[in-house]
Amino acid sequence: MTGISALKVDNLHKSFGQHEVIKGVSMEAQKGDVIAILGASGSGKSTFLRCINLLETPNSGDVYLAGEKIRMKRNRHGETVPADIRQVERMRARLAMVFQGFNLWSHMTVMENVLEGPLYVQKTPKSEALEKAKALLAKVGLADRADYYPAHLSGGQQQRVAIARALAMDPDVMLFDEPTSALDPELVGEVLAVMRDLAAEGRTMLVVTHEMGFARDVSSKTVFLHKGEVCEEGAPGKLFTNPETEQFKAFLSRMN
Amino acid sequence: MDLILEYRSQLVTGTVMTIQLALASLVIAVAFGLLGAWAKLSGSRVARRLALGYTTIVRGIPDLVLIMLVFYGGQVTLNAIGDATGLWGYIEISQFVAGAGTIGVIFGAYFTETFRGAIMAIPRGQIEAGISCGMPRQLIFRHIIWPQMVRYALPGFTNNWLVQLKTTALVSVIGLQDLVYNAFTAGRSTGQLFTFMAAAFVIYLALTGLSDIAFRALNRHYSRGVERA
Ligand SMILES: Nc1ncnc2c1ncn2[C@@H]1O[C@H](COP(=O)(O)OP(=O)(O)OP(=O)(O)O)[C@@H](O)[C@H]1O
Ligand SMILES: [Mg+2]
Questions:
Q1: Cα–Cα distance for residue pair B157/B174, rounded to 1 Å
Q2: pTM value?
Q3: CA A208 to ligand 1: nearest atom
Q4: Do A148 and B229 touch (CB under 8 A)?
Q5: Helices marked H in chain A — which ranges?
Q6: Looking at CA atoms only, how far is residue B136 from chain A in angstroms?
Q7: Cα(A198) to centroid of ligand 1, in Å?
Q8: Is the dihedral of CA B41, B47, B52, B55 positive or negative?
Q9: Does any CB of chain A come closer than 8 Å to the CB of residue B43?
C-alpha cells in the first residue's frame, strides 16, 4: 500500500463572522472506509461536510481527493477562495453529496434527475448513461418510478433517487448529511438498507447521522464532533462500548 | 357596421401598430427585468443600489409623464449634449422608439420584481445539489434556475404583459398611430366615436384573450412536476 487516502482533510477551520464553527478538524478516509460523524445539533457536522466540497469556503485547511489538493488562494479582501473553479468543479463531480432534504430537481423526472450529471457534467454518451441510470434505479428499488416527478414520491423514495443521482456520477467519495433525518420513522429503514449495501460494496462514505445503529454496525470509524472539534474517534466497537470523554458519554445517553 | 368596414384599413394598421409596440416594448422590458433581477440578487452593492434606484423611480412616476418626458425632453437633451460635445449630429427620436423604449423601461421595473421573486422562490437546496454535482454556473442557470424561474414568473409575467399591452394606448398622446389613435380619428371624422371605440374595445379584448390562451399553454408546459400527473 502506498497509502494515498481517498479523502484527506487537514486542519480545517471555518467561521461565520466572529463565530468559529469548525476549529481545526482533520480526517482521513481510505478507500472503502465508512466514517460516521456524530455530534449534537450545532456541533458543526453539516458545515464540515459542506466545506469538503466547497459549498462553504473554509477559512483555512486543506482538502485532498486521492492525493490531489483543492487549491485555494486569497482574494483582494484577504478571504480564502478557490484558486481554480474548474478544478473545484472536477473535484465536486467526484464527491457526491446526499442532503437531508433530498434536493431533487422538482421540474425533472426521476430519470432526468439521475441523468443530469452523467449527460451534462461528465458528457457520457446518452445510451450508456441511460443504461446505467436504469441499473441504478433498479438498485435503489425504483425502476418503476423513472417517469415520476419528485413531488409524487414519498420521502424515502426521493432520498433513494437522490442516492441514485449521486451514484450516477461514479463518485470516489460520497458525503451524506443526515440522509434519514427528514424521513418518517417507517421510511428510514429503506434508505439505510441502500446505504448498507453501498458500504458492503466498498464505497468510501462520510455519513453524518443520528442513527446510532448504523454508525455502530456499518462504519469502519466513528468520529464524535463537539463544538467544532473532534472530541473522540475510533473503531465503533470500542467507541460505543467504552466512551472516554464525558461529552461523548453524555451524547450517547441522550441518544438512547 | 358599414362604417367600420369602410375604415377597416385604419383599424387594421392601428392594431398592427399596437401589437408591434407591445412586442417591442416587451422585449425591452424583459431584458431590463432580467438585468434588474440579476443586479438585485448580485453580490455587488453598486449593482443592487442602481437596480433599487431604477425600480423605485420608475414605479413612482405616472407612465404618461415618463412617455412625454422622454419624447419631448429626450430628443432635446440628446441634441443639446450632441451640440455641446460635438460627438453626434442632430438626432431625431421617432415616436415608435420613444414609445416602445419608454414603455419597455417602465415595465422592466415590474419585470425586475417578478423575476427576482421567481428566482428567490427556487429552493436553495436544488441549486446546491447542482453545485455539488460539479455543474458549472451557466449549466445550473440553464437547467435548474431558468426552467423553474419561468414557472414561478409566469403569473406575474402574464399580468405585466396584459397591463403593458393596454399601456401602449398612451402613445397616442405623442401622435403614434396605434389602435386608439386611429379609432379615435375615424370616430371623430365620422361623428361615430362610440362605434369606433366599441370596435377598439373588442379588438383589445381579442388581443388579451389570445394572450391568455398562449400563457395557459406555457403554464402547462412549465408546471411539469408540480401539478398532479
Ligand atoms: N450560513 C451560516 N451562517 C451563519 N452561521 C451558520 C451558518 N451555517 C451554520 N451556522 C452555524 O454554525 C453552527 C454549526 O452549524 P451546523 O449546521 O454545521 O451544525 P450541525 O452539527 O450540522 O447541526 P444539526 O445536527 O442541527 O444539523 C451553528 O451554530 C449554526 O448556527
Ligand atoms: Mg446539520
A1: 27
A2: 0.86
A3: 22
A4: yes
A5: 45-52, 85-93, 110-116, 126-139, 155-167, 185-200, 212-218, 236-241, 246-255
A6: 7
A7: 28
A8: negative
A9: no
H-type alpha helices, chain B: 2-6, 8-41, 45-60, 63-68, 75-85, 95-121, 124-132, 137-140, 146-167, 179-190, 193-222
- Identify the CA nearest to A6 among candidates A83, A85, A96, A72: A96
CA–centroid distance, A20 to ligand 1, in Å, is 10
Measured distance between the N- and C-terminal CA atoms of chain A, rounded to whole angstroms:
39
d(CA A122, CA B39): 31
Domain residue limits, chain B: 2-222
What ipTM was reported for this prediction?
0.93
- Cα-trace Rg, chain A: 18
Which among B134, B151, B222 is the nearest to A89, CB-wise? B134
- Three cell numbers at B126? 436544488
The residues near A182 (Cβ < 8 Å, ≥ 6 apart) are A100, A101, A102, A155
* Nine-digit cell string for A255: 441518544
Q: Convert the pLDDT of each residue in A79-93 to its tens digit.
A: 899 999 999 999 999
Q: Is ligand 1 within 6 A of the CB of residue A46? A: yes
At B33, which amino acid appears? G
Placement of cell 449630429 in the chain? B89
Q: What is the pLDDT of residues B190-200, one digit of tens each?
A: 988 899 999 99
Strand order in the sheet with A204-208: A95-98, A173-177, A204-208, A34-39, A221-226, A229-234
- Identify the CATH class of B2-222: mainly alpha
Residue B135: closest C-alpha in chain A: A121
